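Could you show me just one protein sequence together with its fold in token form as a worked example?
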Amino acid sequence: MKLKKLLSAMTAALLVNVAMPALAAQNDGSAEKPLRVVLIPADGGTEEGTKKDFQPIFDAISGHTGLKFDIKVGQSYNAVVEAMCTGAADIAWFGPASYLQARNRGCAELMALAVKHGESVYYSGIFARKDAKINTIADLKGKRIALGDVNSTSSFNVPVAMMLANGVNPAQDASAINMAGSHANVLKALSEGLVDAGGASFDSYEKAVNQKAIDPSKIKVVVKSDPIPQPPLAMHPELNTELKKKLKFSFSNIHNMPGITKDQIRGYGGGKVDGYTVVVSEKQMAATGKMFEIVTDQIKTEIMQKAGKR
């Protein structure tokens, strides 16, 4: 019993220490206190791939404004939410689903969305091996399915929502579920024949094809989602008001600033974009959440339990 009490006390102390950063002021972008940027692990959970995607745009902002950034990649989508909500980050790149989690906890507000071909949207999809005899979502029954992080919009929530809306409950109907953890890992499992189908964003699919990480001749699109708002860049609500204005102005005008090359204007997946917009409302982002309201916590739990079975 004494050991149990000691462990409880140690746990409580640890929780207090973890929560402490939330009490501290957010950084100001100086060399001494660079703005701490945390990115969701869209490229397999490693620093290199995802950081390389976004380094050019932050270098461009830094070159024009003098603001300094310290960029890191979270080990999971949830880790990025927690970094913002404990005050350990000043700026984060989220998926729409993880952004809504942070916003609903009061620790994130919209900063900017990438614009490409005049739009700020991207697409999720369900992809399948051509030899798996999958032509519709209904054909996923009895198949092996790969999904990304449970908090990912386009590698989990939207694909699962599309399945459920078409009468397929992956927890009950799939022969096996592989929780691959990222878009890249979903596509890799699919390419290697470890699964029959998987959910990922079209940006990630195109990136994997361009990098020759997968063989597109073996894979086909089963279904493409409705438009989804681009994964947002968000800032901590407690950042200085003038600093927030400076960041928004810089992102929305970076494409017209002298000395900035088109190659530096990058977005999700490291792809070149036209620029960024700050004309986006919380109401619009909240409406996106309705796309996957059908993916309840119970559904997520059942899918995770299914994935745990070997």
Remarks:
- The chain has a mean pLDDT of 88.
- The longest strand covers residues 109-115.
- The chain has two domains: 18-118+230-286, 124-225.
